[in-house]
Amino acid sequence: MAPRRLGRTVSIRTDETYKKLRYAAVSVVFVPIGQILIQILGLWLHNYTAASLLQAAVITAPNFFANKHFVWRVTSRENVRSQVLVFWVAVMLGVALATLFTHLAEIATVHRAGLIRGTAVLAAQLLGLGIVWVGRFLILDRWLFKLAGDTPEHADDVVGELPI
Questions:
Q1: What is the DSSP code string of 106-152?
Q2: What is the mean pLDDT of the chain?
Q3: Long-range CB contacts (< 8 A, 24+ apart) of 13-18?
Q4: Cα 160 → chain centroid
Q5: Helices (H), the chain
Q6: What is the pLDDT of residue 152?
Q7: Contact 105, 48 (CB under 8 A)
Q8: How far apart are the first and last CA of the chain?
Q9: How many whole angstroms separate alpha carbon 118 and alpha carbon 108?
Q10: What does the longest C-alpha to C-alpha distance in the chain come to?
């Protein structure tokens, strides 16, 4: 019985790794799209801070549905609720921090050329989103799932529920 449990534990870790890779893949698609939107809207509105907020309003719903379809598709119903909560908390924190950094970059580069301003905004956005993205995996996921009682033993039950 011990080897079987070990095999399932390895399978669970592999599934979790694939889930994180799918999450990263969705981010690799949506972050560049969002950054392109910010650059275009920032030039059009002459306000990168407003462009950051507008971009978030446009891109968040498709990002949510991409996560729902690609990342959470093999997650138990109980864990989907946690994933959705984590997603929305991360989105709100990411947008807030990236927009704050964008505002500060915009103020610091007010008299600079458009290319320098756009580059500063891009760096500010990536810094804000990156801090939240790393924080999500290091802090928020572990904290929420420990509160939910997810343990390797509980994960075995979840994998047992999945149709294979």
A1: HHHTTTS-HHHHHHHHHHHHHHHHHHHHHHIIIIIHHHHHHHTT--H
A2: 80
A3: 15/74, 15/159
A4: 27
A5: 2-45, 48-66, 77-108, 114-135, 141-147, 152-161
A6: 44
A7: yes
A8: 21
A9: 12
A10: 69
- The residue assigned the tokens 């790794």 is 17
Q: Where are the domains of the chain?
A: 2-161
Between residues 28 and 20, the one the model is more confident about? 28
Calpha distance 153→70 (Å, rounded): 25
Over range 71-98, report the average pLDDT: 85
d(CA 16, CA 156): 12
Say how far apart CA 6 and CA 53 lie, in whole Å.
Answer: 47
- Burial zone of 56 (CB within 10 Å; 0-12 exposed, 13-18 middle, 19+ buried): buried
Report the residue count for the chain: 164
Q: Tell me the C-alpha to C-alpha distance, in Å, between residue 39 and each of 27, 34, 48, 135.
A: 18, 9, 8, 26
Radius of gyration of the chain (CA): 19
